[in-house]
Design a protein that fits this description.
784 residues; 7% strand; repeat; ubl conjugation pathway; ZER1-like_C
Length: 784
């Protein structure tokens, strides 16, 4: 069978790395003084492994809520004699000054810090420790690294663990003494988001060897200093930098440029007009360009060929056929051309192999790919456009689309706009239309980022999108690998007293589906999380508002499922005033058939637990159950379940019946009458995963009516659903127990007659060939 998209397995290296990080004390480390994590003395790790450990550690910290960060993790890499680091990528506020100081003795070649707002000027001192080896440095979005904390700046090597906590970064204490003097090997530098107070020209004047510079969002008072790299600069990024005649003239002098990015976030924020003359100059003067981004600029109409000429022929990447005049002078097509939020992306003939824009799916996916890491504001808009494509049209690059959205959600876990649009896009990208093309591994990645979003945001839109996306999966099968986590998140959603109705309804539906068709240890674990109490609280709130809606019915259904063959959960139901709520619902909503069926099904589960039955044996409850024997709600279901509850109570014998009214014989006579009134060919709204609770009522003479109910139940089920229930009855030893019914003198003749028919039906079924899938169907039953 061909592999589905996204089904490539993780490498052994990746699997081993994650295992070691989750089990540091069992693999590489021991518990040292004051519980400090220490590397074992017999371990030496090369850079390939150390780099992987640190970078994977950061990914787990940000994307896996079950992963526990280690306070002294970076100290494991403090000694280059046992560990070697060369390439480190750290992001978000989790990173602190002391983490960088811990690795200051390493010969780092690449250090990327992104959105690390908790590092201060103290880390600038640490950077000096890497100046002889550092080739690539990124400080993108590290808005506080040029500011000192409350006290005096520490020199590289001083260690004060409390300083990170007690001295918040002060925006007034600017670090003026730092420069890149001595960083002789530095080639690639990203200073995106550099504070306006920093004089970038002074900061960079000693860096003579730069080949790549990113000054996104940095306002340049003078642009001429850029010419010091005109013989070396291969890549220049000036995203969201205000363009001017001087800046354009300076850029045109950088003749070695291969990548130029002068894009903006939006046309609305730009006063500068990108003219045909400027674009022509860029093409003519920067002859080595293979990548150009002019997104977000206002384009004058004279840049493109007439509409009739543009519409001629099939789309072409040949420069001579370009619909954009200036690009007709290109010697070869560009590898990348950024035209997002410009009118140029809509033309037919664009001389580039990869184009960002909003004209079609390919351009939108290219935009998500190009802008996710450093420009979430653009990625958010592009994902929103992908959402429209998946919702209204059809996504033809499903694997790529899913992988890009997953990557964006992982990268920007703390960006609400990305989480809203990303979760909405995932809802449409995982629905039935696309499901058959998706691998198990890919769908699991979707589930994980959805749960990350639910954990991080209690905001209504994110929660709704995430819950709706989970509804696209087979429940509980596809969610079982995150079973405990998803249940905890859903119960948390249902805690607030004033949760939005739509989210409440979806969350209860998911809770119900999650406890249906799972084994008992899963149900017991969820019960201990507070599942039973949460459902009863919802029911109580609905009662107070006198409203019987889907939330009310789903809540009782969920309780029915979670109490099936789980005595502890049945006990919780009784302890949390479950029976009082049952009576109140019965009185408040006398005509709600579905509600009555669910409530009686649940009480059937409670009645199956012998130790709990005395709590049901009260005049009030027995009278209610007796009356419900006459119910015709939902076919025979309410009457059938009421009779089931009473059958288990009767099975305990006359000695436990201490009440004067109603009389035990009177109730049993009503039970006989009810059973005789049922149509044995009735189709059922119930699913049995095991017949054990029914079978235990067969070989006994203390309550013939209970035996009769059990035999009728088996006869009905194997008659209407033979392929499902005959194998189950045979497998659980039901035939031998039915034979005992025939042997007992106390068994009623009607009961014996039905028992013979059940045995005959099963015998006939055994003689008929049975398809494998029919047999397998039996294994997965559960009360729904």
């Amino acid at each position: 069978m061909a592999a589905k998209t996204g089904d490539d397995p993780d490498s052994l290296m990746a699997l081993a790395t994650v295992f070691c990080l989750r089990n540091l004390r069992k693999t590489m480390c021991y518990q040292g003084y004051r519980n400090k994590l220490c590397l074992r003395s017999d371990i030496f790790l090369p850079s390939e492994i150390c780099d992987k450990l640190v970078n994977t550690y950061m990914e787990l910290v940000h994307t896996d809520s079950n992963f526990e960060p280690q306070e002294s993790f970076f100290q494991l890499f403090s000694d280059p004699r046992s560990t070697r680091l060369t390439s480190v990528q750290l992001r978000e506020d989790f990173v602190r000054d002391r983490d960088l100081e811990a690795i200051r003795k390493q010969d780092l070649i690449k250090l990327h810090l992104t959105y690390c707002n908790n590092v201060s000027a103290r880390s600038l001192k640490t950077l000096g420790c890497f100046k002889e080896t550092l080739v690539s440095l990124c400080l993108f979005g590290c808005s506080n690294i040029f500011y000192r904390k409350g006290g005096a700046p520490l020199a590289c090597g001083e260690d004060n663990e409390e300083d990170d906590l007690v001295n918040p970064v002060s925006r007034q204490a600017l670090e003026k003494d730092f420069n890149f003097q001595g960083f002789s090997r530095l080639r690639l530098l990203n200073l995106g988001g550099l504070p306006d107070e920093i004089d970038v020209e002074t900061l960079l004047k000693t860096l003579n060897t730069l080949t790549s510079l990113d000054l996104s969002g940095v306002q340049l008072a003078r642009a001429a200093f850029l010419t010091q790299w005109k013989e070396r600069m291969a890549s220049l990024v000036l995203y969201n930098v205000d363009m001017s005649e001087e800046l354009v003239s300076t850029v045109l002098e950088l003749g070695k440029l291969r990548h130029l990015d002068v894009s903006r976030e939006s046309r609305r924020t730009s006063k500068f007009k990108m003219t045909r003359k400027i674009l022509t100059a860029i093409v003519q003067r920067l002859v080595n360009l293979v990548s150009l981004d002019i997104s977000g600029h206002v384009m004058l109409d004279n840049c493109t060929v007439p509409q009739l000429e543009d519409a001629m022929g099939r789309a072409s990447t040949e420069p001579c056929k370009s619909s954009i005049y200036p690009f007709q002078e290109l010697k070869r097509p560009l590898q990348f051309l950024g035209l997002y939020d410009t009118t140029l992306c809509n033309v037919t003939h664009i001389p580039a192999y990869k184009v960002t824009g909003s004209k079609n799916e390919d351009q939108v996916l290219n935009a998500i790919e190009a802008y996710t890491e450093f420009r979430p504001e653009l990625a958010h808009r592009a994902i929103n456009q992908l959402f429209d494509i998946a919702r209204i049209q059809h996504c033809s690059q499903l694997l790529r689309a899913l992988q890009l959205v997953i990557a964006a959600l992982k990268c920007h876990k703390y960006d609400k706009s990305i989480q809203v649009t990303g979760s909405a896009a995932l809802f449409y990208l995982t629905n039935t239309d696309y499901r058959n093309d998706q691998s198990v591994r890919l769908r699991r990645q979707v589930i994980q980022v959805v749960l990350n979003g639910m954990e991080q945001y209690q905001e209504v839109t994110v929660q709704r999108n995430c819950c709706l996306t989970l509804c696209n999966f087979s429940i509980p099968e596809e969610l079982e690998f995150q079973y405990s986590r998803v249940n905890q998140l859903l119960l948390k959603i249902l805690e607030p007293a004033r949760q939005e109705e739509s989210i409440q309804r979806i969350a209860v539906h998911l809770c119900n589906a999650l406890v249906c068709q799972v084994d008992n240890h899963h149900k017991e674990a969820v019960g201990k999380m507070g599942f039973v109490k949460t459902m009863l609280n919802l029911i109580q709130k609905k009662l107070q508002s006198r409203m019987c809606d889907q939330v009310m019915e789903f809540s009782w259904s969920a309780l029915w499922n979670i109490t099936d063959e789980t005595p502890d959960n049945c006990q919780m139901f009784l302890n949390c005033r479950g029976m009082s709520l049952f009576l109140e619902c019965l009185e408040e909503f006398p005509d709600k058939q579905e509600l009555h069926r669910n409530m009686l099904g649940l009480l059937g589960n409670v009645a199956e637990v012998r130790a709990l039955r005395p709590q049901l044996l009260t005049p009030q409850f027995i009278t209610v159950f007796s009356k419900l024997l006459d119910s015709e709600a939902d076919g025979i279901e309410v009457s059938y379940n009421a009779c089931g509850v009473l059958s288990h109570i009767m099975f305990d014998g006359p000695d436990v019946w201490a009440m004067e009214e109603p009389l035990r014989d009177t109730v049993m006579n009503k039970m006989w009458d009810a059973i005789r009134s049922w149509d044995v060919t009735s189709r059922r709204n119930i699913n049995y995963r095991s017949f054990e609770p029914i079978l235990r009522l067969l070989p006994q003479g203390i309550a013939p009516v209970s035996q009769h109910w059990a035999t009728w139940a088996l006869f009905n089920l194997i008659s209407v659903y033979p392929s499902k229930y005959c194998p189950l009855l045979i497998k659980e030893g039901g035939i031998a127990l039915l034979e005992k019914v025939l042997e007992l003198d106390s068994s009623h003749e009607d009961t014996k007659d039905m028992a013979r028919k059940v045995m005959e039906q099963c015998e006939n079924f055994k003689e008929e060939p049975m398809e494998i899938n029919q047999a397998q169907e039996v294994v997965n039953g559960q009360r729904a």
